[in-house]
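Shipment paperwork, digital attachment
Item: protein structure file
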Amino acid sequence: VVFLIIAVLAFLLRVSDIYSRMVFFIAWITSLAAAPLMRALTRKMFAFREWWGYPTLVFGTGETARRLVSTLQKQPELGFRVKAILDDRPADAASLYGVPVYQGLEKVPRITSECNISHLVIAKPEAPRQELVRLIEGPCSRCSHLFVVPDLHGISSLSIEAHDLCRVLTLEVRRSLLMPGPRVAKRLIDLGLAICIGVALLPFLILIAILLRLESPAPALYRQSRVGRSGRAFWIWKFRTMVPNADCVLKEHLSKNPELRFEWEQERKLRCDPRITTIGRFLRRTSLDELPQIWNVIKGEMSLVGPRPIVHEEMLKYGKDFTLYEQVLPGMTGLWQISGRNNMSYPERVALDSYYVRNWSPWFDIYVLGCTLKTVLDGYGAY
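Attachment content:
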């Protein structure tokens, strides 16, 4: 908006010829990534200050409320500083995650006054409509900002808007990745970044290939069939990180170790994989083995950000979530990559992939790409 105003003023004041259009365009492109990055850094810098965040009261002590309070306590940069928890039923404990728990709606005026509460979250999705209306119009009306957690687990939570449709509260759920415009925009971003990254890293990729060939005579690259958009199979490319006879080594290793066989059947990965070479272990820890997938991105078989590309045997493990998976292109990185990588359970990875598809936006991709760099440098969850 700021750049649009500047452009209009420059045109009206007839000073557009004085300033470089190229500089203006580059500044606009840079701000698209710099603005959300600076906001995130600001939140990180001030998140643990006592004055940071809105004093918040959470109503409810059930499982949903517990998860909510836990998340808000772990991520103070979100801006909600939980001062108290309240419920109309007897509480199991006097505090929850270090936050005092109170019983009785009659305590709302005193708590909101003493703690200067401005934000209240009703985290009782199981409550009937009549009870929610009573809370909203009654004791909870003292707070200027009121949030209600509905019983709508599993739908989009970012791409959603509230409307008044014939005087009835209506929620509009958008699936941006199913719209032609956002799909074209995502493809253009993927193509532009993939070409730039590929050209910049080409000498480095050649060096890795030479080192792999020096370590063993097998090809530096290998391909594997994966499931793509619409359930179509495609060949995914990676740097070879295993010994040439990897399948035989795995089969022999699993036959001698029942515990490892169980780990393989559950996660399709081994924490201590005997097939990985010395250079391959380094490539996996730094995720450099996945750089050849830039070619898959250029070809339109993958995206820079998306669900984790799965093999055909994993389709059944996705269950009903596979319908979401096949609607988009799999990605080189994704929420699974920045949220724990291989340290996560399989159901957790599936849940993150589904969340990404439901809530995609260009800013979401920028966020994931930025966090991926930090995750790769940390090496957390890589093996």
